[in-house]
Amino acid sequence: MSFRYSLFALTLCVATRVDAQLPGAKAPGAPTSLTSDQVAARAIYKELVEINTVDDSIGSVTKAAQAMAARFRAAGFPEADVQLAGPANAPTKQNLVVRYRGKGNGKPILLLAHLDVVQALRADWPRDPFQLVEEDGWFFGRGVSDDKSMSAMFVANLLRYKKEGWVPERDLILALTADEEGGSQNGVSWLIANKRALIDAEYAINEGGGGTLLDDKPLFHSIQAAEKVYEDFTFTVRNTGGHSSVPRKDNAIYSLASALSKVQQFTFPVELNDITRPFFEQTAKVEMPSLAAAMRAIVANPRDTAAARVLSTDPRYASMLRTTCVATMLGGGHAPNALPQTATANVNCRIAPTSKASQVKAVLERVVNDTAVVITGARADRTDGAPGPVHPQLLRATEQLTRRMFGDIPVIPTMSTGATDGYRLRNAGIPTFGVSGIFSAPGETNAHGRNEKLRVKSFYDGLAFLYELVKQVAGPGAGPVS
Ligand SMILES: [Zn+2]
User: Fold this and answer.
1) 200-226: pLDDT as tens digits
2) Could you tell me the distance, in angstroms and rounded to a whole number, from the CA of residue 117 to the centre of ligand 1?
3) Ligand 1 centre distance from Cα of residue 439 (Å)
4) How far is the CA of 297 from the centre of ligand 1 (A)?
5) CATH number of 229-376
6) Which residues of 71-96 are buried (b: 16+ CB within 10 A; e: fewer)?
7) Given this model, what pLDDT does residue 383 score?
8) How far is the CA of 363 from the centre of ligand 1 (A)?
């Protein structure tokens, strides 16, 4: 296995094609005995996994939010600092927001994790997906990776800080939210629109980052700091049609096919930003020589077409370099013996955050260059703008802790080609970083898939990493860094 497959691990929300580990494959390093804090964290994790939070008639994010709220109240958090909040017409989609009071020196830090999970059917799984199963060094269950591990870690660590009497310089805010995986009541969007003051922060720590293992050893640690922008465009061609025994030159299906073929041939220009530049610089340290050389060359000169060509041989790097658009759905015609009156295609674009959807639409129109093809679909442009660099205080703390806990490996800022809730916060002006200290081999967690799993060692490592990281960035001496 080479690093070339590692990008799949960078976005926890991306479903992978890798299914369960081979039977009997053990994950090394699970602790043989647990501290009382680890026992407490495991119990929270188990409680969360065993509450079904799928977006269907059975699942309820509210139940999980209530269960966590009860723990905070029992630990002595004031009622006003433990709030369930969400749309009034969505009784199963209530989010939990907890405030951990600091000394008021600086804006709060937001700890974000989503409580909802992707559907898991008992018939598809060898074990009950809504039971936390620990076996051969693995935790199995829906959400053990995405995202109930981070949810449990944040809850456990806040309760531990409270027990230890720690008072941070600034407030910490925990938000455990609904509908990240789908559904119409996204908790982060709702909180931004309705309860902004409750979650307003200097920056947020979220899923989407984490460590990559090669042969069970840490290879690098990533901080997710940007995401490409999702946009669907519809290509439509209409025609008067007619009898198929008398074909004409104008034909809706041929026009559409020709337009799609032009899109296929077209490559958007390279666009680097404050995240992808350091991504390629740092990744060059662990990548094979030919790709490493191309990475250094593209950072030095984004117009180096030879370097771009080399990197583009890997679809994941190709997608990091630029906006991509690809045909994903097709429809057309109404009868086998009639000239088509309509033909439509969906073209899915993942837009570099330095570009706008309206600009991409204009490029597609220019590339297609055919007035018979109508392109629709750019919603309002998002306002993310160019991603900024990783917050210096968070980067420094992550680098120090990574070295101490996982050895001398690079910390790599990344831009996800898929999406998490991070983009919603960034769009609202709250910089958001995916960092977790949770390590896995590429694809092995199978998030969204069958037998979702997480190394037991990685759970306790992530717990310890986030405990220290949050203490460092919010703790005495940390203070706000502008
Ligand atoms: Zn997730």
Assistant:
1) 999 999 999 999 999 999 999 999 999
2) 8
3) 15
4) 34
5) 3.30.70.360
6) bbeeeebeeeebbebbbeebebbbbb
7) 62
8) 32
